[in-house]
Amino acid sequence: MPSSYSNIASATTHALQDRLPTSDRNVAGRWSSVGCGSDGGSSGSGGGGTAYRCVDDPIGSPNNGTDYIQIRNRSGKEAIFGFSPLNIPSGATIQFVRVTYVAIANGGSANIKAALRVRSNVYTQPTAQALSSTWTTYSYDWTVNPRTGVAWTVAEINGGALEGMGVYSGNGDESVTQVYVTVVYR
To answer: What is the C-alpha separation between 160 and 144, in angstroms, rounded?
Structure first.
C-alpha cells in the first residue's frame, strides 16, 4: 500500500511508492563492497552481483557505515540497482521520480550524482552533489522522464521503462550506504 503525505509543493495530497534495491543492474568495476558481499561490487553490465545488499537498508534507517559501497578517486563510474516492479494506479499523474541516497566523503572533498536507468540509458542529475564528511541523506527529483524530456507516464513507470536507480561517482573518495527510488503521484 502506498504511503501518502501532504504539502509537497502545495496543499494537495500525494501518494508515493518507494523501492529499495533488489539486484545489481550495472555496478561498474572500481566500486567495492564493504561488509556485505564477496564479489567486490563489480557485477558488470549483466547484473548478478551482491553490491545492492550494501545499500538496501530500510527507508529511514540507514546503517551509516556498517555496510556500504565505496569508490576511490574514480569519476564517471555508475552503481545502478534494480528494484521490484512499481504499481502506480491507472489515471494517476506522476509528479516526480526521486532517487535518495546516504553518502559520505572519506577524507577531503568528494562529490556524487543521483542516477536513473531508463530504457538501457543512464541519466544523472545535472550538477554533482558535494558530500559531507559525515553520513548525510541527499536526493534528486526528476519531474520529467530524462529520456523523452516530457512528463512521466504511468505506463512508463509500471511498464518497466524505469529500469534502475543508483549513483554516479564524481571525484574524491566516496561511500554510499543506502539508495532507494520514490515515485510521487496524485
So the answer is: 16
pLDDT in tens, the chain (186 residues): 344 443 444 446 899 999 999 999 999 878 999 998 654 444 443 344 799 999 999 999 999 999 999 999 888 899 999 999 999 999 999 999 999 999 999 988 999 999 999 999 999 999 999 999 999 999 999 999 999 999 999 999 999 999 999 999 988 899 999 999 999 999
Q: What angle do CA 159, 84, 170 make, to 5 degrees?
A: 95
What are 44's three cell numbers? Answer: 558488470
Q: Terminal CA-to-CA distance of the chain, rounded, Å?
A: 14
CATH assignment of 16-185?
2.60.120
Strand partners, 44: 27
Max Cα-Cα span within the chain: 48
Phi, psi of 18 (to 5 degrees): -105, 150
